[in-house]
Amino acid sequence: MLSFQATDLQDVVLVETGAHRDERGAFARLYCPEAFAAAGIAFTPSQINLSTNTLRHTLRGLHFQAAPWAEAKFVRVVTGAIYDVVLDLRPDSPSYRRWQAFELSADNLRGLFIPEGCAHGFLTLEDDTGVLYQMGRPYEPGHAAGIRYDDPAFAIDWPAAPVLISRADREWPLFAG
Ligand SMILES: Cc1cn([C@H]2C[C@H](O)[C@@H](COP(=O)(O)OP(=O)(O)O[C@H]3O[C@H](C)C(=O)[C@H](O)[C@H]3O)O2)c(=O)[nH]c1=O
């Protein structure tokens, strides 16, 4: 059911769900410890979150938790669609400072595994978009860090300007790494 595809970023993995589809709709497996272990990904969800977004072109992120509160996360869209961006902030990674974008949607049911040390953000592509997160560690308030979506250090190419973005996400300091 789950198939794993490497990306341009080290250890960031696209997960095709291989949903069973018929005239009623689809049935998809959203996580499987055996499949992750067989793919060499040490990841056990400890918290599951849902982000609902009313408007198209809502932007959330980019967020990460600095060590020792770094989080791995397995992200997928359950309604609507997003332009999902992962940015590698691991100085020892061959893809350090590189970003890559992925279209995740309720239609493709594609999942994205994001290891610790990467920043994550998305721009919704449809109204009423729901994003499901399976988190590798419990939330630690007060340790959120962020990268500004328009930081010139990374020149992330978004498909549209955000119509809705939190003040916190607008005001992250520019990257000084
Ligand atoms: C992340 C998180 C937040 N919260 C609380 C804290 C706030 O009171 C409220 C909203 O938090 P925030 O505005 O940080 O939500 P997002 O902007 O959607 O943050 C997420 O968006 C980007 C794209 C991500 O990849 C992260 O998983 C996550 O940081 O939920 C929790 O209780 N648990 C959590 O794990």
From TrEMBL:
One Pfam family named in its UniProt record: dTDP_sugar_isom
The protein's enzyme class: isomerase
GO MF terms held by the record: dTDP-4-dehydrorhamnose 3,5-epimerase activity
Catalytic activity entry: dTDP-4-dehydro-6-deoxy-alpha-D-glucose = dTDP-4-dehydro-beta-L-rhamnose
EC number: 5.1.3.13
Chain positions of site Participates in a stacking interaction with the thymidine ring of dTDP-4-oxo-6-deoxyglucose: Y139
CDD domains: cupin_RmlC
GO biological process entries: dTDP-rhamnose biosynthetic process; polysaccharide biosynthetic process
Gene Ontology CC entries for this record: cytosol
Superkingdom classification of source: Bacteria
InterPro entries: RmlC-like, RmlC-like_jellyroll, RmlC_Cupin_sf
SUPFAM superfamilies in UniProt: RmlC-like cupins
Active site per UniProt: H63 (proton acceptor), Y133 (proton donor)
PANTHER family according to UniProt: DTDP-6-DEOXY-D-GLUCOSE-3,5 EPIMERASE, THYMIDINE DIPHOSPHO-4-KETO-RHAMNOSE 3,5-EPIMERASE
Functional note: Catalyzes the epimerization of the C3' and C5'positions of dTDP-6-deoxy-D-xylo-4-hexulose, forming dTDP-6-deoxy-L-lyxo-4-hexulose.
Protein name (database record): dTDP-4-dehydrorhamnose 3,5-epimerase
Species of origin: Stappia taiwanensis
